[in-house]
Design brief:
By secondary structure, this protein is mainly alpha-helical. Helix content is 95%, strand content 0%. The protein has two helices and no strands.
C-alpha cells in the first residue's frame, strides 16, 4: 500500500493541535504562577509606597502653609513699616512746613540735575 502525501499531511496537521495541548497545559501553570507572583509583588509595593507618599504630601502641604504664612507676615510688616513712615512724614510736614517745602524743593532740584547730567552723557 502506498501512502498518499496529501493524506499524510492532513493526518499530521489534524494531530498537531492535540500534540501541542500537553505542552500548552504544561506552560499554563508556570505562567499563571508567575503572573500571580508579580501581582503579589505589585500589591506589596503599593502598600509599602502608600505611607511614604502620604508623608511626602503632608510635608509638602506643611511647607507650603509655612511659606504662605511667612509671605503673609512679611506683607503685614511691610504695611506697618510704610504706615509708620507715612505717619512720621505727615507729622514732620505738620511740625516743620517751611523746612518740608525747602527739603522737597532741594530733593526735586537734585533729581533734576542728576537726570540732566545722565541724559547729556548719552
Amino acid at each position: 500500500m502506498t501512502s498518499n502525501p496529501t493524506s499524510n499531511t492532513h493526518h499530521l496537521t489534524s494531530d498537531a493541535p492535540s500534540a501541542a495541548e500537553p505542552a500548552l497545559a504544561a506552560t499554563r501553570a508556570p505562567v499563571h504562577n508567575t503572573l500571580d507572583h508579580a501581582n503579589t509583588h505589585v500589591r506589596e509595593l503599593q502598600s509599602s509606597l502608600k505611607p511614604a507618599l502620604e508623608h511626602l504630601v503632608e510635608h509638602v502641604q506643611h511647607t507650603l502653609r509655612h511659606g504662605l504664612d511667612s509671605v503673609t507676615e512679611s506683607r503685614k510688616q511691610a504695611q506697618k513699616s510704610l504706615a509708620r513712615g507715612a505717619d512720621a512724614t505727615a507729622r514732620y510736614v505738620a511740625e516743620q512746613p517751611v523746612k518740608s517745602v525747602l527739603l522737597a524743593a532741594a530733593t526735586g532740584a537734585a533729581v533734576t540735575a542728576l537726570l540732566i547730567a545722565l541724559t547729556r552723557r548719552r
